[in-house]
Structures are given as C-alpha cells and as structure tokens.
Amino acid sequence: MNIIFYRYNSICEPDYLDAFRKLGINVIEDKDGMRKDIDISEKLTKLGNMISDYRPLFIFSINFFPFLSILCEKLGIIYVAESVDCPVFEIFHTSIRNKVNRVFLFDRQQYLSVQSENPGYIFHLPLGAPCERTQALLGDDYKPEYDISFIGSLYKEKDLFFDLKLPKAEKERFVRIMKEQIAESGSGMKYSEERIDEKAVSLIKNAAKEFYPSDSSVKNMDRFVALNDYIAPHIAFLERVDILNDIADSVENAKVHLFTRSDTSDISRKVKLHGGVKSLEEMPFVFRNSKINLNISLRSIQTGIPQRVWDVLACRGFLITNDQEEIKDYFTPGVHLETYSSRDELKEKVRYYLEHEDERLRIAQAGFDEVQRGHTVLLRAAEMIKRAFS
C-alpha cells in the first residue's frame, strides 16, 4: 500500500511518517513543499507524475492545502489532511467542499465552524503524543534542571496588531478589551468576540497592510481574520509576557526558565532566558527535566488541546495548563496533569507542586501512562485511515 506524504517541514511530520510506516504503509515523500525555488504549478506537475507512478491510496499532509485538494479532486485520489494549527484559514477555501477530502481538525469549535460545508468528510480528532520517539530518546533518566519552564513563542514577531495604523484611542480600546479577556477567563475569546463589532472589524481591516481575502472562501472571512490574525496573537503576547513575569516576581525560591526565539525585551530580568530549542532533539529533555512545565494556549484554540500538552505528557513531564474545554474529555486534572482558570490559581498550584515532588512525579507518570495507552500518534494515524475509508 502506497501513500504520498506532502511535506513542508512541519515539526509534526516525522512522527506521522514513522506512524504510517509502523502501520505497514509504504510512504513516498514529496518534499517540494520545503522548496522556495519552485512555484505551485511546478509542484502540481511533479506531484501529478508521482501519483501516476505510485498510484497511492491517498495523499497526506499536515494542515490543509487547497491546491492539493483541487489536484486530488481532478484525479479522483483521496486527500487526507490533519490540522495541527488553529486557526487554519485554508479550511474555509471553497476546495474544502471537495468529496475527496478527509480533513481532521483537533479543535472542536474549529470543526463545528466548517463541518457543514462538507458533512461526512470533515472530522474532529485530537492530536497525539509521540511516546515512542520520546521514550527512545529519554529513557528513564530524570535530572531536574529547571524549576518552571515555558517553551514557545511570545508571538511578538507574529503580532500584526503592532503594525495596525489605528488612532491611538482605538488601539488602546482594543488593548483594554484584550486585557479584560485575559482577566475574564483562562482560554478562548468569547469576551473579545462579544465586544468587537463589525465597525471594529472594519477599522482593523482598513488599518492593515494586508488582510486575508475572502474571494475564494466559503464565507466572508473579515471578522474571523480580524479576531484570529490580529486580536488572538496580541492577546498571546500580552498574556505570555505577563504570566511569566508575574510568576518570576511572585514565586519565591524558584526560577522561571523561558526557551524562545522571540524578542524578550518585555520579559523580567528575574526570568532566566534561553534561546530556542530544537523540537525533536532538545525540547524533550527540557520537558522531562523541568519540575513544572507551563502551557499557555493561543486563544484562537478555543476548545482543543494544543500539541504542547501532548508533547509534555509524552516526555513524562509534569504539566500545568490553562483549562481548555476538551481537556476533561481525555484527562483528569490532578491525576494526569494540572489546570488553572485564573492567575491566582496558577500561582497557587505552582507553589504547591514545587513543594510536593512525590505528587508531581506521580501525576507526570500517570499522564504518560494515559497518553501511551490511548493517545499516541500511531493510534491517531490508524484512526484517520479507519475514518477516511469507512
């Protein structure tokens, strides 16, 4: 059985390559997605030739690519795509309606927002834990080097809100709404959505250098783009900086460690700064050897569980994460991981677990056991194939 795996260098690709191969599938890699020197038409021609040569059961990619769906529709080949990001604007392209699609979305709210465009061909499926890879890399060694760790972007380099040419008063009003959103809840964007009306959306659109168009989409995207391309990333910047600084300032006898490639000029001097870490080779060691790992979800992930959660648990790391709606569908807080709904609760739990190592280690082991039992990348790959052809 052959499949063609379209690659563009997502950090999730190696785990799915291994999973498909463990299922006995012959995986042919199309690496043209990694190339910047060829255009879409050349990529399509080469992929079309590969399809002719190998006659694959399906084409697979991490995240949804409209041009792949269009090609597969023309050739009558099943196209399987798994979203590891949220939002993915491309899922609203008109090609999402193609009947060759088998699209898997990890955030239930994202799934509900688009599933009616192609009923029976769009699915909700959580992400998975790369347990085999991390266990082979880490073994059973545990040498705690870090008290409290966060690995990830501060989103300043991805924050289009900074560049909006808005009147000062309007920009301050948006920031005030974002800060109120952070104080209101630990996840989602409901508060912001209720306060950013169509007039505000128009202000953002008109102030933007470039604004994602709706021309080829199944609906007008203006509101969705304003919230997810401008508001959510700036909330992420404000929230992550504020949380890390707050913990560093208020939790005594413990050091906060930040691993990032982002601009850290807004970070407190009390935070220990590290550069970015290699996702496959170095990140697992930080997750395993941190007493506490933090997850602060991007607000556009409204209900789902981001990949960082699965990765920490796969490394047998102890995790405190903001309370996402879907967490309780798969885990029990206090048994497999810990959650917080407010800043005070987060700081209280950080202090508590720094002082209770036995509980920390027990929860980390239980979290690993749970994902290894029922939530590995291998199991997710098998589930995708089962649903795609049922």
How would you explain this protein's 3D organization?
The chain has 390 residues and is of the alpha/beta class. The protein folds into two domains: 2-128 and 377-388, Rossmann fold; 131-160 and 232-374, Glycogen Phosphorylase B (Rossmann fold). The protein contains 15 helices and twelve strands. It has helices at 13-22, 40-54, 66-75, 108-114, 131-138, 168-184, 190-195, 198-207, 222-250, 283-288, 307-314, 327-330, 343-355, 357-374, 377-388; strands at residues 2-6, 26-30, 58-62, 78-82, 101-105, 122-124, 146-151, 256-259, 272-274, 290-295, 319-322, 338-340. The strands form two sheets. The protein has a six-stranded parallel β-sheet, sandwiched between helices. It has a six-stranded parallel β-sheet with strand order 9-8-7-10-11-12, sandwiched between helices. α12 links the parallel β11 and β12. The radius of gyration is 21 Å and the shape is globular. The model has no long low-confidence stretch (mean pLDDT 96).
Keywords for this entry:
6-stranded parallel beta sheet; Rossmann fold; 2 domains; 12 strands; 390 residues; alpha/beta; 15 helices
Overall average residue pLDDT:
96
Shape: globular
Largest sheet: 6 strands, parallel
| CATH class categorisation of the largest domain | Alpha Beta
Portion in strands: 5-15%
Based on the coordinates given, report the CATH architecture of the largest domain: 3-Layer(aba) Sandwich
- State the end-to-end CA separation: 17 Å
Provide the structure class: alpha/beta
In CATH terms, the superfamily of the largest domain is Glycogen Phosphorylase B
According to DSSP, the number of beta strands is 12
Number of helices: 15
**Order of neighbouring strands in the sheet with most strands:** 2-1-3-4-5-6
Helical proportion, percent range: 40-55%
